[in-house]
C-alpha cells in the first residue's frame, strides 16, 4: 500500500513533468523534421484592410498554410507521434494533433486571389492584393498587402420583373426580408441573400417550377467610381410567364418492404381517393388515417414549399419510414395543377437493445444492465411501444477491496409505455404538429429499491403525458395524471439504534402512501444546445400533488391534522386517507437556467443555476423520499459524490456510530431546497483524436441543499445570515471526447470549501495543498466508515449541461 501511495503522489508528478518537457521540446523543433528546401509558416498577416473585414478576409487564407496558435499543443503532439528517423512520416499517420503549416507557393497564390475576390465582392471593385514571403531558418512569414481603392455604393436600386404575379408577390414581401437599399455599400453577400429570399417567396406562393437562376443582378457603372446602379432581374422561362400551381390529387404509396418499390407502380396504385388523397399500402402494415394526418399538401390549395417541407419532417418523425420522397407530376402541361406523389419506404419497426453502464465515482462503483424492446408500429398507426427491464447495484470501494464486498444498494425496475404521435384530446387539430411532432404517452412502471440492512421500497407509477412543440425553441410537456403508490418496509434485522437515531428517515422509508398529481415542464432553446452561439436556455417545471384528493377527502366531516399523532403510544400521524392509505400533498417547482456565451472560434463559456424547492402542506408533513433534492454528482457540484453534500452544515460525525453511518449512506443527505451554480469554460484540445475531437473544460461549482422542517435539525436549515458559510465550492478540469453521436466525459473535481466543517476549517483546499494526510486520518477516525477525498473523479456520457 505504501508503494502504491508513493507512485500516486511522486512518480505520477514526475511522469507529468517529463511529458510536459517532451512536448515542449517538440514544440521548439518542428523545423528539423522538414527538408532544407521547405519552410514552416509561423505567421500570416493581412495589411491595409478595413478592420471590420480583416477577420473574414483571413478565412480565405488556405487552411494548410495557416499557422497554429503559439499556445496550441496540437503541432507538438503531432510531432511526437508522427515523426521517424528525423522526418515526418508519410504512412501510418497517427490521429493525434495537427501537422505544421508547410509553406506552399501555390496555396499562397490561391489565398491572394481569394482575398482580392472577397474585397471586390465587398464593393472595392478596383482592389489589388499582393503577397510577400519572408523565409529565415526554415521559418516563413506570409504577408498579404491590399490596395482596396475606393468603395462603391448603390446609388439607384431598381428591378425588372416580366411576370405580373411574380412582381406582385416579390414587392409585397420585399420589405420583410431585403438587405438592399440605396446608399449602402455594395456587398455580393447581400445579393446572394436577396436571390435566396426571392426563391423562397416564389416557392411559398405557388410558383412550383421557379428556379434560382431566374434571379440575377446587373451592376451598372456610373461616371463616379464611388457609385453604381443596381438592377435585379427576374427572367421568365423559355415557354412564357411563370405559372402559379395548385395541389391536385395526392398519391401516397408505401413500399412492400424496406428493400424498396417494385419496378413499376402503375398496377399497384389505388385509384380511389378520399378527401383528394389516394392511399396505397403495399406492405399491409399501416392504417390510413394516422399516416395521412401529417400530409399537409391539401387538394385545391396553392403550392407552398413550406407544406412540402412540413410533410417531409412529420413523416420522418413518425420513425417508421427510412426514406420519404415527394415528387410531382403534371398530366396536362396546360393545367396549373400538380399532383404530389409521396413514396414511403418502411423501416424495421421492432428492435431490442441491451445496454450496460458502470457509473464510477471516487468512492463508489455501480453496475447497471438493461434490456429494452421497442415496436414503433404496435397498432399499425406509428404508435411506439417500449418495454424495459433494468437492474443495478451500487457499492462502496476503497483500499483495494472488491467492488462486490460492500454493496449498499440494489435496484430493479420494469416499465412499459405506449407513445401515440398525436395529442389525444377532444380539441386536437393537425396544425398543432406544424412546428414539431406532438405525442401522447401512457406509461406504467414498477421500481424495487433495496438499501442494504435498512429498507426495501416498492413504487408503482402510472401516468399520461402530452408533449408538443410551440416553436422549434419552445417545448411543452404536461402530465395531467400522475398516480404513484409506494410502500416500504424496514429490514427486520435493522439495528434499533439506527431507527431511533434516524427516526425521520426511517419514517419516510417505511411509509405506505399514494400520490395523485400533475406536472408541467416548459423548455426554451433546447434546439441550440449543440450550437456555438450566445443564448439563454431555460427549463422550468412544477409538480403538484394531493389537491384533488384533498377535495374528495373534505366531503368527510371529520377533520385530520397530520401534525398530531393518533395516540401517545403511536408514531402514526393523523392523516386523511383514501382507500385506507394516506395521500401526499405538496408542490415542487424547479428551475434550470443557463447562459451560453460564444467567445469566438471553438471557445464557449457557460453559467448555470439549478434551483428547486419541495414543500409539503395540507395532508403531508414530509416530502416523499424520492421527491427530495440532492447535491453533488457528475452534473452538479462535481467535487463531491452525489448525495454527500449537506443539508446545510450537516456533518455525519453527529451520527451515533459507524454502523449507523454505513446503514443510512445516501439517505441522510437529502433536502427540500436546492441551489446549485456552475461556471464552465470550454475549448478544443485536439481536433483529431482517434477519429473524434477531444475537448477540454475548466469549471467552478457552488451550492448546497437545505431542509425546511426544523425537526430534522437546525444545522440543516437555510439561514440567510449563514448562507456563505453553508455553501460548498469546488473546482476542476475535464475532458470531453466527441465522436459525432456520443460525448464521453471525464471530470476531476477538487474541493475548495466544505460546509460540514466550521470556520477556517471549511477551506479544505489549504489542507490539500499541505498534503492533507493528517487531516484525512483525523476525519476517518471520527466519520468511519466514511473516508475523505479531496479529489472526485466523474465519468459520464453526454455534456453535464
TrEMBL record:
Subcellular compartments: Membrane
One cellular component GO annotation, for this chain's record? outer membrane
Q: Does the keyword DNA damage apply?
A: no
Q: Which domain of life is it from?
A: Bacteria
Q: Which Pfam families match?
A: Omp85 (PF01103)
Bacterial surface antigen (D15) domain spans which residues? 579-761
Q: Which InterPro entries match?
A: Bac_surfAg_D15 (IPR000184), D15-like (IPR039910)
Task: Please name the PROSITE patterns in this protein's record.
Answer: PROKAR_LIPOPROTEIN
Q: Name the UniProt key words of this record, in alphabetical order.
A: Cell outer membrane, Membrane, Signal, Transmembrane
Stored PANTHER family: SORTING AND ASSEMBLY MACHINERY SAMM50 PROTEIN FAMILY MEMBER, TRANSLOCATION AND ASSEMBLY MODULE SUBUNIT TAMA
Name of the protein in question: Bacterial surface antigen (D15) domain-containing protein
Give the species: Pedobacter jejuensis
Amino acid at each position: 500500500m505504501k508503494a502504491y501511495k508513493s507512485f500516486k503522489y511522486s512518480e505520477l508528478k514526475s511522469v507529468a513533468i517529463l511529458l510536459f518537457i517532451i512536448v515542449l521540446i517538440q514544440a521548439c523543433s518542428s523545423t528539423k523534421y522538414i527538408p532544407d528546401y521547405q519552410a514552416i509558416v509561423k505567421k500570416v498577416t493581412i495589411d491595409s484592410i478595413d478592420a471590420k473585414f480583416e477577420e473574414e478576409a483571413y478565412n480565405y487564407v488556405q487552411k494548410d498554410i495557416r499557422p497554429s496558435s503559439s499556445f496550441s499543443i496540437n503541432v507538438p503532439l503531432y510531432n511526437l507521434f508522427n515523426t521517424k528517423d528525423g522526418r515526418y512520416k508519410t504512412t501510418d499517420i497517427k490521429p493525434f494533433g495537427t501537422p505544421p503549416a508547410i509553406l506552399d507557393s501555390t496555396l499562397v497564390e490561391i489565398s491572394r486571389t481569394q482575398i482580392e475576390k472577397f474585397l471586390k465582392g465587398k464593393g472595392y471593385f478596383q482592389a489589388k492584393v499582393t503577397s510577400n514571403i519572408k523565409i529565415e531558418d526554415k521559418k516563413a512569414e506570409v504577408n498579404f498587402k491590399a490596395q482596396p481603392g475606393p468603395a462603391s455604393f448603390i446609388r439607384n436600386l431598381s428591378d425588372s420583373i416580366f411576370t405580373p404575379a411574380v412582381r406582385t408577390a416579390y414587392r409585397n414581401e420585399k420589405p420583410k426580408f431585403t438587405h438592399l437599399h440605396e446608399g449602402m455599400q455594395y456587398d455580393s453577400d447581400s445579393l446572394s441573400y436577396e436571390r435566396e429570399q426571392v426563391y423562397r417567396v416564389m416557392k411559398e406562393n405557388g410558383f412550383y417550377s421557379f428556379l434560382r437562376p431566374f434571379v440575377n443582378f446587373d451592376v451598372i457603372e456610373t461616371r463616379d467610381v464611388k457609385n453604381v446602379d443596381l438592377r435585379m432581374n427576374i427572367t421568365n422561362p423559355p415557354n412564357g410567364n411563370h405559372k402559379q400551381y395548385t395541389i391536385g390529387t395526392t398519391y401516397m404509396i408505401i413500399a412492400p418492404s424496406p428493400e424498396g418499390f417494385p419496378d413499376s407502380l402503375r398496377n399497384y396504385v389505388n385509384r380511389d381517393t378520399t378527401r383528394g388523397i389516394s392511399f396505397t399500402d403495399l406492405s399491409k402494415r399501416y392504417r390510413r388515417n394516422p399516416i395521412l394526418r401529417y400530409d399537409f399538401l391539401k387538394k385545391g390549395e396553392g403550392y407552398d414549399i413550406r407544406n412540402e417541407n412540413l410533410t417531409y419532417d412529420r413523416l420522418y418523425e413518425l420513425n417508421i419510414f427510412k426514406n420519404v420522397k415527394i415528387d410531382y407530376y403534371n398530366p396536362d402541361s396546360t393545367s396549373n395543377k400538380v399532383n404530389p406523389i409521396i413514396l414511403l419506404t418502411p423501416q424495421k419497426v421492432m428492435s431490442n437493445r441491451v445496454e450496460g453502464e458502470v457509473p464510477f465515482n471516487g468512492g463508489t462503483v455501480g453496475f447497471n444492465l438493461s434490456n429494452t424492446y421497442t415496436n414503433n408500429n404496435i397498432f399499425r398507426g406509428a404508435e411506439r411501444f417500449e418495454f424495459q427491464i433494468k437492474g443495478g447495484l451500487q457499492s462502496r470501494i476503497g483500499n483495494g477491496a472488491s467492488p462486490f464486498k460492500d454493496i449498499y444498494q440494489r435496484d430493479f425496475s420494469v416499465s412499459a409505455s405506449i407513445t401515440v404521435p398525436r395529442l389525444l384530446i377532444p380539441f386536437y387539430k393537425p396544425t398543432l404538429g406544424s412546428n414539431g411532432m406532438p405525442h401522447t404517452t401512457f406509461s406504467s412502471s414498477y421500481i424495487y429499491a433495496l438499501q442494504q440492512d435498512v429498507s426495501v421500497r416498492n413504487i408503482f407509477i402510472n401516468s399520461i403525458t402530452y408533449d408538443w412543440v410551440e416553436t422549434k425553441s419552445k417545448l411543452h410537456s404536461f402530465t395531467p395524471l400522475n398516480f404513484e403508490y409506494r410502500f416500504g418496509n424496514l429490514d427486520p434485522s435493522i439495528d434499533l439504534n439506527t431507527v431511533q437515531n434516524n427516526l425521520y428517515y426511517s419514517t419516510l422509508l417505511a411509509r405506505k402512501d399514494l400520490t395523485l398529481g400533475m406536472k408541467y415542464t416548459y423548455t426554451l432553446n433546447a434546439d441550440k444546445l449543440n450550437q456555438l452561439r450566445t443564448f439563454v436556455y431555460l427549463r422550468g417545471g412544477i409538480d403538484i400533488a394531493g389537491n384533488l384528493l384533498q377535495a374528495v377527502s373534505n366531503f368527510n366531516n371529520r377533520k385530520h391534522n397530520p401534525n398530531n399523532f393518533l395516540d401517545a403510544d403511536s408514531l402514526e400521524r393523523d392523516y386523511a386517507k383514501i382507500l385506507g392509505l394516506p395521500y401526499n400533498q405538496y408542490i415542487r417547482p424547479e428551475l434550470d437556467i443557463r447562459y451560453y456565451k460564444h467567445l469566438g472560434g471553438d471557445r464557449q463559456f457557460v453559467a448555470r443555476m439549478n434551483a428547486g424547492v419541495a414543500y409539503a402542506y395540507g395532508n403531508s408533513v414530509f416530502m416523499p423520499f424520492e421527491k427530495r433534492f440532492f447535491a453533488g454528482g457528475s452534473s452538479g457540484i462535481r467535487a463531491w459524490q452525489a448525495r454527500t453534500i449537506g443539508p446545510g452544515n450537516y456533518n455525519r460525525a453527529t451520527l451515533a456510530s459507524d454502523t449507523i453511518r454505513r446503514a443510512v449512506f445516501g439517505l441522510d443527505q437529502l433536502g427540500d431546497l436546492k441551489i446549485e451554480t456552475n461556471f464552465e469554460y470550454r475549448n478544443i484540445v485536439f481536433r483529431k483524436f482517434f477519429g473524434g475531437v477531444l475537448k477540454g473544460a475548466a469549471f467552478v461549482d457552488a451550492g448546497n441543499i437545505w431542509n425546511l422542517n426544523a425537526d430534522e435539525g437546525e444545522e440543516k436549515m437555510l439561514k440567510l445570515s449563514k448562507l456563505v458559510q453553508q455553501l460548498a465550492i469546488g473546482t476542476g478540469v475535464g475532458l470531453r471526447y466527441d465522436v459525432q453521436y456520443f460525448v464521453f466525459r471525464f471530470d476531476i473535481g477538487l474541493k475548495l470549501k466544505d460546509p460540514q466543517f466550521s470556520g477556517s476549517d471549511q477551506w479544505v483546499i489549504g489542507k490539500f495543498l499541505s498534503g492533507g494526510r493528517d487531516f484525512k486520518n483525523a476525519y476517518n477516525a471520527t466519520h468511519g466508515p466514511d473516508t475523505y477525498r479531496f479529489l472526485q473523479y466523474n465519468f459520464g456520457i453526454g455534456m453535464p449541461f
